[in-house]
Specification:
alpha/beta; three-stranded mixed β-sheet; Rossmann fold; five-stranded parallel β-sheet; 4 domains
Length: about 625
């Protein structure tokens, strides 16, 4: 069984410094002493040095404290006086003490940088958390999906996050009409998911969609072909009945109404009502309005999946961009995620009633879309964004292989067979013909995992908790994990004719929790995008680079060239550097005299507290 691990992980963990790295450039200890306290430590060192090493210690301490004097952090005369007195107290003669301390301080002032144990003088760094964005945990997927995800990612040269989450969404699309999870008592969870993967243009998103969704599309086409003759016959019969009714009503309108005609009209109305035209089942929809989406759900047992490799347009539609009055109507999406009832009264046709709406969304969008979602009316406030599983993986642009291995036939076929098997499992219906989903239940071990998860999450949702700024998402985290567990269970037991008769195991729930940890970290990164202004995003960009690349110092010119696509001009970049300096994250270094023509680039040192795992 997989061991449950702490969900909350702080990204600013201790950075491993390579053994061969130049230690003079990277301070490796955190010291919060003031300059005066640092000087006092060296005074004490000199005073307490035993005979035989006093001269060396006095010179060494004077050298290190001299570097601090050079930076203007200590007054030179007072510092020199204290060090000389300490040298005399240690047993050196007055002349020897003065000569040793003065030569040490002069050398320190002339040559030394700040000593390696002085990072505390920077002041406490002020910054927001840099999120540790983990890779997609493929190892916790059932084997048929894991193998497929791995080979699709390699063939398309895309991060495994995309294929992994789309595969979960594909299973959710199929199983949303089959099952729901009973956690305990009246706590039920649907197994549909909202998934949003952020990717830059040109990253082969559409190819991954085609591969992942192909078995569902094939099944839809086969069902449409199978039902085609039946649909044609029922449509013809319905047209005949409609025509007969029209003729009878025309006679009635000409005042030739009699009891036989009245009986005929009533009979035809009943026949028309009974003449149901079968519909081939739809699982997938693409760009469509809220009204059309509701109709598609009503026509398909309340279930549909909205999928798009260009999800920006979907969010524009949700936000009301193409509506008649420009306003958004989020009800179908909010209720579709929760499994709530939807009733819509139409002027042009009868009301649409969905007893348990089940909507899956599988979208990818460009980074600019994510940045703007938090600004859309109601998206955060009403909880739409809290319903998504996010992925913000690093794409492979610039490092892709031109001739990657193709997907082995047997791996693709096993995945396609798996989805097809799930598609053919029998649905449950009540006496009125409405879906009455099979219940998935948890074994005792799985229940304990859920309780432990909730206990771990709860403190983070408080006012001072790490999820206090995103309690809407954090409050749904346990439910998301339960949904994922339901999907993993259905995949694991797809070959069983009734997977719902098997309890969800503790092992399955544990693997769902591992995936949930991944979801949490990516959601935190997404919420930073929602809540940061542009200045904060610029600061976060540089800070993230510093931490992930373990950068102890850099030149303004080199950093600007690296991020030129973001900043465009030096004014905006310099504003970011100023902000980082004010927050004690970096500080400018003295310009060194150049031996070649040209204006020297300003250099910045990085607060060692950042590189050594400051968690403020």
């Amino acid at each position: 069984m997989y061991e449950f691990a702490e969900l909350e992980k702080i990204a600013l963990v201790a950075v491993n410094v390579p053994e061969k790295q130049n230690k003079s450039k990277l301070n490796t200890s955190i010291n919060t002493d003031s300059p005066e306290e640092y000087r006092k430590k060296h005074v004490d060192k000199i005073t307490n040095t035993p005979d035989g090493n006093r001269n060396h210690q006095a010179n060494s301490s004077a050298f290190q404290v001299g570097a601090v004097v050079k930076k203007g952090l200590l007054e030179d005369k007072e510092t020199e006086r204290q060090l000389i007195e300490a040298a005399i107290d240690s047993g050196l003669g007055e002349d020897e003490a003065m000569s040793t301390v003065k030569s040490g301080m002069e050398a320190g002032i002339e040559k030394a940088n700040l000593p390696p144990d002085a990072p505390g003088w920077w002041g406490k760094p002020i910054h927001r958390e840099v999120i540790d964005i983990p890779p997609f945990p493929m190892e916790h997927l059932p084997k048929p999906i894991r193998d497929f995800v791995e080979t699709v990612a390699e063939f398309t040269q895309t991060p495994a996050d995309l294929a992994g989450l789309l595969c979960l969404a594909a299973v959710a699309t199929v199983c949303g009409r089959l099952v729901k999870v009973q956690v305990r008592g009246d706590w039920y969870e649907q197994v549909n998911l909202f998934v949003l993967v952020i990717h830059r243009p040109g990253t082969r998103k559409s190819s991954v969609y085609r591969l992942v969704l192909q078995p569902i599309k094939v099944y839809e086409a086969e069902e449409a072909k199978r039902l085609s003759p039946e649909i044609a016959e029922a449509t013809m019969n319905r047209n005949i009945l409609d025509e007969k009714k029209r003729v009878a009503e025309k006679k009635a309108a000409n005042n030739v109404m009699n009891s036989d005609l009245e009986d005929e009209i009533e009979y035809l109305i009943q026949e028309i009502d009974d003449c149901k035209i079968p519909r081939s089942l739809r699982f997938l929809a693409e760009d469509c309005s809220q009204e059309k989406l509701t109709s598609l759900m009503a026509e398909n047992d309340g279930c549909i999946a909205l999928v798009s490799a260009e999800g920006g347009g979907i969010f524009d539609m949700i936000g009301g961009r193409y509506g008649k009055d420009g306003s958004s109507n989020l009800d179908v999406y909010l209720k579709g995620h929760a499994g709530d009832q939807i009733i819509v009264d139409r002027i042009s046709r009868g009301p649409e009633h969905i007893s348990e709406a089940t909507l899956t969304m599988a979208l990818t969008a460009q980074p600019e879309v994510l940045e703007n979602l938090g600004k859309k009316s109601g998206f955060l406030g009403r909880g739409l964004l809290a319903r998504f599983i996010y992925a913000l993986p690093k794409d492979m642009l610039g490092s892709r292989v031109s001739d990657p291995p193709t997907i082995p036939y047997e791996i693709k076929q096993k995945y396609y067979d798996l989805i097809t098997t799930l598609l053919k499992l029998p649905v449950s219906r009540d006496e009125d013909g409405q879906l009455d989903r099979h219940l998935l239940q948890l074994d005792n071990s799985a229940k304990k995992h859920v309780i432990t998860l909730m206990d771990k999450l709860e403190p983070h949702l408080g006012e001072d908790g790490s999820l206090s700024h995103m309690t809407d998402w954090g409050g749904k985290c346990a439910g998301t994990v339960v949904r994922i567990a339901g999907l993993l269970h259905m995949v694991e037991h797809a070959a069983d004719p009734a997977p719902w008769n098997i309890l969800i195991s503790g092992d399955t729930m544990s693997r769902a929790i591992h995936i949930g940890r991944y979801c949490l970290q990516h959601a935190k990164a997404a919420y930073q995008e929602y809540q940061f202004n542009d200045d904060e995003k610029d600061v976060s960009l540089i800070l993230t680079w510093i931490i992930r690349k373990n950068v102890p110092e850099f030149s303004a010119r080199d950093a600007f060239q690296k991020f030129r696509g973001r900043f465009r001009n030096m004014d905006r970049f310099n504003t970011t550097l100023k902000c980082l300096t004010e927050r004690n994250i970096i500080r400018p270094q003295e310009l060194e005299e150049k031996k070649v023509p040209g204006r020297p680039s300003k250099k910045y040192a990085v607060n060692p507290a950042i590189l050594n795992g400051d968690k403020s």
